[in-house]
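Input/output pair, single chain:
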Amino acid sequence: MPNPYDDLFDPPENEKPTPPREKPAAQPLFSTPDPFNDHRFEDGPDALDAILEKIAEFNGEAEGFSQMLSKLRVVDHEVKNKTMRLFFVSNDPHKRGSLAGEKQYHELQMTKFLAIIEPMRGLAEMHLETVKRFNSDIDAHYFNVDKTKGEIESEKTLAMDGINLQRKILAEACDALQILDGGLKDTERRLKGYVNAGGKNNISGSEFELLSRKRQALTKGLDHQFDYTIFDTNLLDKTAFTLGIYLKETSAQYLGKLGKALNQ
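Output:
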């Protein structure tokens, strides 16, 4: 029978014999991924369905944005016949005739610019995420066991058309911002004529300089860390839009430009 008091007389910790170390289990030279724990096989929404859902979300946000573009009537601020004014005296339809009028017109264009660029940046982020998902998940090898080949091709066409529509909307917003940028610069050209002019139509050089710097920070996208000119469409893009073609550029090209434009 074991002595029930043995535990009371155990030797101190430093006198106990050191138990033998267990040998570590041998590690296999090559590990085989467990298909049940591999993230690539996780259940989740179908890639194409997720993209179409993102496109629907974008369209919901873009509806109000496009209505705002209509109401702002930015085209009214477009500066025309710049070259002609260099050689001929011509009536300037935007001229306000006074310092107060020019400053008010300058502030109006700044307000419209701000009203566009803030929501546009959010739409650009949604567009970036959609393009990223499409380029990485949808290719010639994409399939879904629950869809026929015809259904897959139809949904891929819908997705590509949706992405092109996103680019059209963002391109139109970019055009509006560029019109306002030109209008603001032209207004500052007229304002400069009032620098140290004296009388009630007088503006100091320092006030003019600060006004111009404030405009530059906004129109160059510095205030919002957003290079909106990425959506300035070239001839190739416009042709693609007209023909309904989606140009699937590589990540190092269009996606890289988008990420850089949004500082991502």
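The chain has one domain: 46-63+93-261. The chain has a mean pLDDT of 82.
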